[in-house]
């Protein structure tokens, strides 16, 4: 973006798209965890990090 100022807007929009997709995935994981809990009574951690 430093070399090509014309790409700043497009790149910024792509960053927001990536951010929003990550939020959607987090919400979907939360919903899936709640559904599993409702069905089985177990509380899984589906988005546990691999640290």
Topology:
Layout: H1 8-40
Give a description of the structure.
This protein has one helix and no strands. The chain is mostly helical. The protein has one domain. The protein is rod-shaped. The model has no long low-confidence stretch (mean pLDDT 87).
In short:
This protein is mainly α. The chain has one helix and no strands.
Number of structural units classed as domains = 1
- Count of DSSP strands: 0
Q: What is the helix content? A: 55-70%
Overall residue-averaged pLDDT value: 87
Keywords:
51 residues, mainly alpha, 1 helix
């Amino acid at each position: 973006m430093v070399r090509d100022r014309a790409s700043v807007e497009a790149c910024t929009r792509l960053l927001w798209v990536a951010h929003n997709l990550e939020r959607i995935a987090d919400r979907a994981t939360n919903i899936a965890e709640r559904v599993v809990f409702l069905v089985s009574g177990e509380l899984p951690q589906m988005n546990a990090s691999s640290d």
